[in-house]
């Protein structure tokens, strides 16, 4: 699908990638950059996926992205949300792609459009609609006539051998043949056929990317992973701002022209949109976290990096590149144009453990370990990747008094079906995905067996054991309507075996297995033939031996009744009888309550650590799957808090509905507000001033402030003011992180705190000089080595 507007400043990308200009001028490229309206440009891009962000939050996210130094927004196009049924299209509300692109235009930014239509993206079925699986004779992701669509193909091309090679050439020829008037790019495709451009995905493309396969193509980084997506069962995933900045600076020092952060804002996998086992929260460690809050120092450090690179723009796009080896292992990458008299240098210390000093053009410079200093005039250091000048912050959750006041929970027990009620019967258990067709996570498998007293163990302390071999992903087991237990696989190994004692009785016994997926797979070869659900079933420990139930005759029923009746909506709640919820602990139970919107305007979340696994709706809108019962190796849930966008809420009377699958206590659910009101700064005597202290004028870099010595700069969010100084030391560097500092072994704390209070209390923003004159007379003066100032303050507004 292709959307074009003659008034739209656009940079369109991917199935491959293509670019559209602002006013329908010719868009081309050379070995240095894309050329739009006859001009070379540097592109600082960030991935923001429209289905993962409520439409009411789009302007806020774009605004924060632009203030973070981006000039481009990237998104996939998600086929399965636009054509969930063949021939039935949806471009409304959160799926209004045209509105999304027009809002980018209003921000005077470019748009990078990755049209897929296969996108992967940790998205359900990689963006492919389920009905595609039922097209006759189809094989996904190869040179197969019914299937001709792709993205990031190089990783699986070998699985299809000659068909994979011919498929790549077909895709390139098809794209170019559309005559869109813009260049196309193939992600991760080393041998992209001309004139299509090959690009890099990864964490360190400045070192791992061998470059374009032709000298007339630009260097493009289509996915720079700002952290790592997480699946249920994972420990936390992080990537330091310093590491990310080093990688980006390295890439641009090697003729890079476009860097796209994947993700810049990950958002939320609402409803059932996540791929197999992927958490509801997506790329929370991005520069803008799940709630759209600036995650510092990542957001601020990258903003400063972009400003430093812009000061080098003319040299990067028109200068002649060269490499010079300096002393102590330092490397200089230089871009210089003698005619225009511009010069920019990237001085790199690749030693990961030791700092270094080196002379460059007659001047000595200091470099922290594994760092790059950027000199936009080959003289002045305006940015170092390891020295974070921007502030840090820490995220906090606060229980809302208003929202949690007088909550009254009611419950409805989901009906457990028996085989006689099942609409689909077959001798063996049927494959799950073929039955649900992505209409629901759930598929009931039901059967029944007749037992006599002589079949059952004579001893009362011995029970038969139910054994179920399951292709994945999760299964809840019931016998005669009573919950027995649950089993699940993992993102790495979907299949599992469930074994647990089961209470059976003389007469008719009903075995009821609720199988389910936690999202469809999104990657790899042969996506259309993946398996899930119950495979083999047996009862062990009977007096007559093991009873194989695999061919016993099975009933199949898609979904659960409450889901079909939409009892999570205001209208649907009237379709069933609710009763007072007392304590919880019931498997496969619906809970509902009503709450008022929390005070203030901070983001809202639910803490669900008292629950097990299930789904949540607010005012009929699904905020996604939760699974706090699945612990990481650290013994904690992978995700405990779940985002409730403010745009979903009314001032009062908000309907909250929870489907709990395993048993949990809804009375312990907490409605929270989210903030990043704890802000910090750690600045050493070797830090340069903020990059905003310089600008280019008449081809030269000059200071625009009187004092370019290092300073700790603090700024409260949302016009709040600093109400408390929680921590302040001058001396050696403290341990820990913002929100949890511990003083170093040689610091001045009480004196430093007094100084910071004088500079900052009652203000929205403040600057504190980092020098011995400001903090003179304290113990910090006597500390050996490089001295640093570490500060932590708390901000508050009228509603806090």
Automatic annotation (TrEMBL):
It catalyses: Hydrolysis of terminal non-reducing beta-D-galactose residues in beta-D-galactosides. Keywords: Apoplast, Glycoprotein, Glycosidase, Hydrolase, Secreted, Signal. Gene3D superfamilies: 2.60.120.740, Galactose-binding domain-like (2.60.120.260), Glycosidases (3.20.20.80). It holds the Pfam family GHD. It is found in: Secreted, Extracellular space, Apoplast. Its EC number is 3.2.1.23. Residues 706-796 form the SUEL-type lectin domain. GO terms for molecular function: beta-galactosidase activity; carbohydrate binding. InterPro entries: BetaGal_gal-bd (IPR048913), Galactose-bd-like_sf (IPR008979), GH (IPR017853), GHD (IPR041392), Gly_Hdrlase_35_cat (IPR031330), Glycoside_Hdrlase_35 (IPR001944), Lectin_gal-bd_dom (IPR000922), Lectin_gal-bd_sf (IPR043159). Residues 1-22 form the signal peptide. GO terms for cellular component: apoplast. It is an enzyme of class 3 (hydrolase). Belongs to the glycosyl hydrolase 35 family. This is beta-galactosidase.
